[in-house]
Amino acid sequence: xxxxxxxxxxxxxxxxxxxxxSRDLVDVVEKALQGGVTIVQYRDKxxxxxxxxxxxxxxxxxxxxxxxxxxxxxxxxxALAVGCEGxxxxxxxxxxxxxxxxxxEDKIIGATVSSIEEARVAVERGADYLGIGTLYATQTxxxxxxxxxxxxxxxxxSYLDEAGGKSKNTKTxxxxxxxxxxxxxxxxxxxxxxxxxxxxxxxxxxxxxxAIVGANNPKQASAHLAQLIRSSPPFSRSxxxxxxxxxxxxxxxxxxxxxxxxxxxxxxKSPLSHNMTxxxxxxxxxxxxxxxxxxxxxxxxxxxxxxxSRLGGALVVNMGTVxxxxxxxxxxxxxxxxxxxGPIVLDPVGAGATSVRRDALSQLLGxxxxxxxxxxxxxxxxxxxxxxxxxxxxxxxxxxxxGDSLLSLEQRAYLVSRIALRERNVVLMTGARDVISDGVxxxxxxxxxxxxxxxxxxxxxxxxxxxxxxxxWPQDKLRAAVAGILHYEIAAEHAAKREDVKGPGTFVPxxxxxxxxxxxxxxxxxxxxxxxxx
Length: 534
Ligand code: 3NM
Ligand code: MG
Fold this sequence. Notes:
This protein is of the alpha/beta class. The protein has 20 helices and 16 strands. The protein is elongated, with a radius of gyration of 26 Å. Bound molecules: ligand 3NM and magnesium ion (MG).
């Protein structure tokens, strides 16, 4: 029976004043069933055994009408008395093997796990599914052991995937802080990435308490969650195996032709580029955005993002001068853009340099989805570490200027494609050759000019440029980003060649002019990019 269980929207009940309040639990669960929850766990830490059995029997009647399994938290005796479909046990409860002996092979037994070791033991003892948590801090359960975030859950999924056999077939749900604003992103990100083409192990469902039991309208809340789970998120796309594109003329021609269209789209749509950026580059970034045809707004206050995210633009989160307050603002804005599906560019400036920045980066990666992450080699290596990769090189970043390359081109391509595959987004590593990947297609781009390395904010304003391209050409984010890079770097080449440009100082205004001219010419059909992408 446990094989056929639908774990996708797993309701865990709560009878406390803080969440259920004065409402009737049986009534709330009935509404949730009408809304579409697929499995119910009766979790009640305080009622006496007699009451537990009485309430569980009523819940079981309601669940049976919807053909939904009812599990009891912790209490195998109650499950036996009620004759419901199974139990869920925590690490401090009866262990899975003992519960199995009492309940028999046909009942569903789930276990709470927070680590690979706990997962290994629960599978060995015969758990049908694992409740993995705590995903995010939650008011519902205050004594949770550990907040493990998306990356912690992904590590457990990868372990189960690689262990194979029974481990791979064990179902999984995540728990802790799941709600309508984050459920699509969580499901999108929770899978065990692999380089082979076989299907990776993915999360089978999300478990929620307050998002349903604490909702004003539990039926509507469940129906909304069920619909979000069924439909793909606004930023979703399919994920195929990685390959490394050497050089393919057809591909490059088609890339260049898309680049022209994307540039024209930036001009015709003039998308909002919402920059939450550092103190150093605010003015330059706004000028670059205007020059390429976008509409910049420099707004670092997170509350504003709710409104701004609805204007069809994109957000740049540039953590160049990160502060605790800034981090809170980023998180608010990221949540707002993730909710509307508006693209976000993450620029983790100096990410590896200090523990504050490393921590900020891992917080951001754990709480939001970024359509594009861009950085220099060391920044992207910091992203890789924050995303759960183990890299051999332990050297820490010294400053925002990346210095000599640590990795070969092949290694860089491998790294960006693996991060992109894991994060299911686009990752760009800038350098003398920029390497960009969406985990499937990987390109190296050879354009640009050394002056870009001699002025401040060239990386940051590339981020601004890319945000406008993602907003204007959302149908293919990788190609949109390639178009943005070409626009930016070819303008730099043109500027550097001008007679009036004598060095980095005169380069800046010429560069802004060329950003403007290149975009305008494409718009008028007078200009096509050279075949410099390879
Ligand atoms: N178990 P909400 S977190 C019941 O981490 C429970 O094992 C957790 O509540 C764990 O959906 C949790 O309201 C509460 O955040 C989840
Ligand atoms: Mg328990």
